[in-house]
Amino acid sequence: MAEAASSTAATPRAAGARGPRDLWRRFRRHRSGVVGLALTTVFALMALLGPVIRPYDPAQADYLNVSAGISAAHWLGTDNYGRDILSRTLVGARYSLSIGVLATAFSALLGSLWGLLTGYLGGWFDTLSGRIIDILLAFPGLLLAIGIIAIAGPGFKNVILATTIFGIPIFARLVRGSALALKERTYIEASQALAARPGRIMFRHVLPNILAPILVYVTLRIGTVILIAASLSFLGLGVQPPTPEWGAMLSEAQLYLAIDPLMAIAPGVAISLAVLGFNLLGDGLRDVLDPRIR
Amino acid sequence: MWRYLIRRLIELVPTLLGVSIAVFLFIHAIPGDPARLLAGQDATLADVEAMRARLGLNHSLPVQYLYFVRNALRGDFGLSYRQQVPVLEVIREHFLPTLLLSVSAIVLAFVFGVLSGVMAATRRNSWLDLVVTGVSATGISIPSFFLGILLMYLFAVNLHWFPVTGSTSVRGLVLPAVSLALAPLATIARFVRSSFLEVVGEDFVRTASAKGLSDRTVTFKHALRNALIPVVTMTGLQFGFLLGGAVVIETVFNYTGLGWLLIQSIGFRDYPVLQVLLLLFALEFMLVNLLVDLTYGALDPRIRYG
Predict the structure, then answer these.
(1) CB burial of residue B254 (10 Å; 0-12, 13-18, 19+)
(2) Which of A23, A180, B169, B179 is deepest in the core (most CB within 10 A)?
(3) Where exactly are the structural domains of chain B?
(4) Nearest to A235 among B137, B157, B263 (CB)
(5) A-chain residues near B268 (CB < 8 A)
(6) pLDDT tens column, B153-201
(7) Which of A231, A233, A249, A275 would best serve as a mutation to test chain B binding (most B beta carbons within 10 A)?
């Protein structure tokens, strides 16, 4: 992926020359990208307005109305405590989305900085950090996140910590590859010849030229992080019940599967659609920003 | 080829050492004193100190690490806190179910992924193509544990075709394997489709058609073989991720493999078992990646290792 991304860097300033209006015009024609944008907008609104538009208090138990089916009063029925499933699902958007966005932002920031430094400085620092990245990436899937949770303990903040660390090496590797390729280009050499400081070269010349692949990665990563965070909560290692986080809701729902399948379907569909939205949006952005990144 | 293999294996050593240091430090980063934990609730101070000496925890950290490596090379990873039997024995019990589950899932994913990818590519823009593209976009977005729960509700709770949970029999394997297979299947199908479309446009495929070979020969012998090379890499990577995904699916189905053991060990704070499991998963992942590179060469005669 790093090699593919570095080909983007082959045409410096190309992204800037197109202009945002032109990009929007081309994005609009990307059907699945627009679907992704619509889905992510809906979930962003849910996260912002969920606590306002929810019909009931998501923590309010109603023991006379336990595991009720779909009705006019409860559009998605109620759970094993008689809590309104629709309200819980609406409010849940806030947890999943904030984990996804925050953890991805942190890991993109830290990982890009790391990749930029090691790619640009090279030498023993690059060799050492390459080894560290190898070690972090040696744990398959969510194993690294699980290991971190085992040390730090469960909870909302620790899920953000674990998913952030999980994402850092991926951004570091992406940015390092692009920075390495850019380093050899004439306009970078030119600024070196003009005695520009390394910091200036990195942030003024190298970074702007790799923003497009970073943006695409960020969008796709948010979906992945939402999945990982929901998995952690489902395993009892993330956000804990009775908090209406979707993964946690699913783990409670599994116990009542035979009597109350809606308890599982609502949060499950919510996770799937949110992840689908970010994936489609990311694919669309990639096609529009640079069709060569694959 | 052999020289290449040996060089690659040697290159794994520094990463493996790094992973072992990380995993070794892991057990020390855990809050709480293992000596106190193991000595029991009503242990005297002397008991705790004796336990500390028995565990070797009274040495300095680097010395402890060397002991850890020496014992590990002898296959001695200490005792499980929970069961008081050697860690390797605990792990051996749960190894086979996980191997069965992950291998059957990746076989399912590969076979059906390649088939649907080729079908979609050869009938580009047909309804079939649309279904495959749509299903694969959804397939990578549905969490495997949600799919597992849905399948369980349909086929186990309602139709009683399969056991609900807690079975490692062949019938008990079906639902977890299918749940685990969907995401890699979707990724592979998507990848085969685009890789196939790329290859079909190449000169040698046109030449093959031009010299009058049947569509089937062109599709399977010329186009597919070349399109498959990157797919093998993709499948290998997916297999690696699948090892991680098995943790969640095994928990859903109460399927007593290594992933299930991992979650149990966190619950019981059985850190020696946890340590070895993390090491094992990382080692497997690294070996799978190496195997991928080697298969790559077997499929593409243009790649020579030296």
Answers:
(1) middle
(2) B179
(3) 2-73, 95-299
(4) B263
(5) none
(6) 888 777 877 777 766 677 778 889 999 999 899 989 988 888 888 777 7
(7) A231
